[in-house]
Design a protein that fits this description.
alpha/beta, Molybdenum Cofactor Biosythetic Enzyme, Chain A, Maf protein, 6-stranded mixed sheet, 5-stranded mixed sheet, 14 helices
Amino acid sequence: MNAKLIAVGSELLRFGRHDSNGDWITERLQRLGVEVVGRALVGDDHGRTAAEIGAAVDSADIVVLTGGLGPTEDDRTREALAQALGLALERDDRRVARLREFFDRRGKEFHPEQEKQADRPSGAVWIDNPLGIAPGILYRGESFLVIALPGVPAEMKRMFDDTVAPLIGQAGEGRLARRVLKIGGRFESSVDAQVRDLYDTPGVEVTILTGAEGIELHLLATADDAGQARARVDRLDRELAARLGLDLYGRDDETLAGIIGRMLVQRGDSVATAESCTAGLLSATATAVAGSSCWFRGGLVVYSDDLKVSLAGVPPDILEACGAVSEEVARCLAQGARRRCGADYGVGITGVAGPGGGTEEKPVGLVHVAIAEDDQRTEHWKIQQIGGRELVRRRTVVFALDRLRRALLRRDPA
């Protein structure tokens, strides 16, 4: 069973917004055993949208549309769907009454244009929207299923999980199995060179990508039954893991911060941070993990030199002699975070995020990261990041997390 996705909205074309809804739906469908074979973006033009729908229903088992179901003039997905299917667009009086009731309960004025949200192609059924006003639309043809959902992510996700996923059910299960392997501290080219001969594994498609937290290997297996598909993924997973060793840090939805948190909890240890150029981004990433209060003690944002001294305990003479962006200061920040917050581990970061502030000696992108494991042991790395300000900051946080993970593994490989 396969699917095609169509995202409707001129903002996706004119303003460079990413189709994150499509990414999410793709993952959900793959979990249901449905392979996404195509995705399209189309502006708020019901003629072009109708053409996309018509082409999709001719070649896919399931077509999922997002966006264009609101009450404004440019919301034309309903009209496009009716045109593509050759059906009349009908207004559901009971749905109009529900819309009026929705507004009345909230003491809001009901405008006539809201009624268009009660229009659907003849023979289609509604998908209830528990979080919003606009309902979704479902139409079952002889050889295809069309599903139209609002573009608001929270509404779309709830409607998909509540209604669409159970509808699709286990129809595709047994054909697909997927897994994502996550690799830290490596460049895409080096990972590719190490494992590329495994890309030709029968029955498994392998895609290598640069993700938000390192390199990702996406495995997608096809088979006649669920057990065989999973077995193929498991077998290739084991081969890749044997080659990648400690560079392989997680799978699927696992994150570096989540893995570090689990390791720290198992040891009964904790971590604290002192950040200059990343200005709390490392702390924010750590505390985005549920339950992080069990292992994250706290963080110091010491952007100015005087706060590096007063909060993180960097000696003024070291700061004056070496400068804020230096190995010595990064080491002091790591130890200062550890001592000041009463943590077992301390992470210190200082650097030049840019775009200004760089010199020939200390260019933009130069970052120093240090990890203190105890009073005597502090490890340091000097790295030269590439990219704009936010990319430098984000990559530095990922680097620091990966180095902390490795430090924890060295302390207790089990």
